[in-house]
Design goal:
It is a single chain. It is built from 5 helices and 3 strands, in the order H-E-H-H-E-H-H-E. It has a 3-stranded mixed beta sheet with strand order 1-2-3, sandwiched between helices. Helices cover 36% and strands 11% of the residues. Helix 4 runs antiparallel to helix 5. The protein has a single domain, classed as 3-Layer(aba) Sandwich (Rossmann fold). This is Fe/B12 periplasmic-binding domain-containing protein. It comes from Litoreibacter roseus.
Length: 127
C-alpha cells in the first residue's frame, strides 16, 4: 500500500471476487454473479476513505476501481479489457459498452442470464 500511496497514480484498479464465504472478514468488494451493488458501493467507499488512500489523486478524481478477479482466467477476459479501456481512456472508448458485450455473450453462450456485478468505481469524495 505504501508504494501506491507514494506513487499517487491517476487510476487504481484492484481485482476482487466473492471470497466472503471462505473468508468472512474480507473487506474488499464482493464481485461476481451474487454481488450486491449496494453492499459493494459501501465497501469501495470505505476502502477509498482509508487513511492514506482518501487523499490520492485517483480517489479524489473518482478513478478508484474494482474489477472481477476471475476475468483473468476466462474466455470473457476481453470484457475486463473493455472496461479498463473505458476507465483509462473514456473519450477514446465512449461508444464501447462492456456491460452490453457481457450481456450479449451471456445470452449467446451461457445457459443462464447475466446477473450480479463485475466492476465498479468509487465516487469522488464530497469536497
Amino acid at each position: 500500500m505504501e508504494g501506491i500511496i507514494e506513487a499517487d497514480p491517476d487510476h487504481i484498479v484492484g481485482t476482487c471476487a466473492n471470497w466472503a464465504e471462505a473468508t468472512p472478514q474480507v473487506t474488499s468488494t464482493l464481485l461476481g454473479y451474487d454481488a450486491d451493488p449496494a453492499v459493494n458501493a459501501e465497501k469501495i467507499r470505505a476502502l477509498a476513505m482509508c487513511r492514506g488512500f482518501r487523499d490520492l489523486r485517483a480517489v479524489q478524481d473518482g478513478n478508484y476501481h474494482s474489477i472481477y478477479h476471475q476475468f483473468y482466467n476466462s474466455p470473457y477476459h476481453f470484457i475486463a479489457l473493455q472496461q479498463i479501456a473505458k476507465w483509462l481512456h473514456p473519450d477514446d472508448f465512449e461508444d464501447l459498452d462492456p456491460q452490453e458485450t457481457f450481456d450479449r455473450m451471456h445470452e449467446r453462450f451461457m445457459p443462464y442470464e447475466n446477473s450480479g456485478q463485475f466492476w465498479l468505481s468509487a465516487n469522488a469524495p464530497a469536497s
